[in-house]
Amino acid sequence: MAIHYPDILQERTIPKTFSYTDKDVMLYALGIGLGDDPMNEAELPFVYEKTLKTVPTAATVLASSAGRSEMAPMPPGLKVSEINLTLMLHGEQKVVLHKPLPPAGTFTTETRTVGAFDKGKDKGAITISETVWRDAAGEIAVTLTGSRFCRGDGGFGGPAEGAPAPHAVPKRPPDLSVDYPTRPGQALLYRLNGDFNPLHSDPDFARAAGFQVPILHGLCAYGITCRAVLEHVLDYDPSQILSHEVRFSAPVMPGETITVDIWRDDKDISFETRIKSRGVTSIRNGLTRLR
Fold first, then answer.
1. Contact in structure between 31 and 103 (CB atoms under 8 Å)
2. Is the separation of the CB atoms in 43 and 33 below 8 Å?
3. Rounded to whole angstroms, how far apart are CA atoms 240 and 66?
4. Superfamily holding 7-290
5. Cα-based distances in Å from 55 to 89, 95, 256
6. CA distance 24 to 263
7. Cα–chain-centroid distance for residue 280?
8. 196: closest CA among 225, 179, 173, 217?
9. Do 98 and 138 form a contact (C-beta atoms < 8 A)?
10. In the chain, domain spans
11. Which of 49-58, 157-166, 253-262 shows the lowest per-residue confidence on average (mean pLDDT)?
């Protein structure tokens, strides 16, 4: 397994058309804990088709119903990189919604690699991908940018510097802190959104990757931070969110309580998350930007 640089910057998928339905939107909302109280009428529109709303961060999973995208052929003479998936972790995630997500829709998606950074043979590598959704008119609806921390793939000879700088949260105490307990079986529900990586379900695989138990999906914790902003800042109005981004800094174990610290500065909502029981920060540099 190896990263081939700069060849990796030519990797892209063949454009693929997919559709999602209200059922996919509701499953995502349930996966991040919305609707746990069926009498909570503020959350019900995210899990009940009567007046359905879409959580903006659902864009990270809604294309999974189309299956894995096929890679486009590489230009002659270039090599395809192979990442050690057992040692790979999600590094960062950003979603930009050029228009609010409908509760059902059809889009065409394409992904390309836009960056690869070498932290050293014993320190791993970071790769950055960009996925664009286009609607039936060809207009860009969603842009997703994500990075992977490839713990076993450093030393490939690429640049060490140049990755985008993370958002700096305010230095003052948070304006608000809220707790979100996760369920012991939450990863088993969330994986039905399309991420079947056994790191989140198979105890033997998790131990081989260095964890005592299967860990919660980083994107599930990411969705919980969006849920916190919706609930405590936006009165459950997802149409106000333009973008939502985070840097993952530590895994969350199903059953732990996630504390979300929130700062409000006009249209910038900064946030970070902590696991108080272990004294670790699990998400850093969070930013929700409003329209």
1. no
2. no
3. 28
4. Hotdog Thioesterase (3.10.129.10)
5. 24, 12, 22
6. 31
7. 20
8. 217
9. no
10. 7-290
11. 157-166
**In angstroms, what CA-CA distances link 141 with 95, 100, 138, 253?**
11, 8, 9, 33
Left, alpha or beta for 90 (phi > 0: left; psi -120 to 50: alpha)? beta
**DSSP secondary structure letters along the chain:** ----TTGGGG-BBPPEEEEE-HHHHHHHHHHTTTTSSTT-TTTGGGT-GGG----GGGGGTGGGGG-SPPBPPPPTT-------GGGEEEEEEEEEESSPPPSSEEEEEEEEEEEEEE--TTT-EEEEEEEEEE-TTS-EEEEEEEEEEETT---SS--SS-PPPPPPPPSSPPSEEEEEEPPTTHHHHHGGGS---GGGT-HHHHHHTT-SSPPPPHHHHHHHHHHHHHHHTSTT-GGGEEEEEEEE-S---TTPEEEEEEEEETTEEEEEEEETTTTEEEEEEEEEEE-
Q: Measure the CA dihedral 111/115/118/123, to 10°.
A: -50
How far, in Å, CA of 208 to CA of 252, rounded? 17
Q: Two tokens at 244?
A: 């939502």
Residues catalogued as catalytic: 195, 200
**pLDDT of 220 above 80:** yes
> Which one-letter amino acid corresponds to residue 187?
A
| Crossing angle (nearest 10°) for helices 22-31 and 218-232 | 90
Residue-wise pLDDT for 11-64, tens only, equals 999 999 999 999 999 999 999 999 999 999 999 999 999 999 999 999 999 998
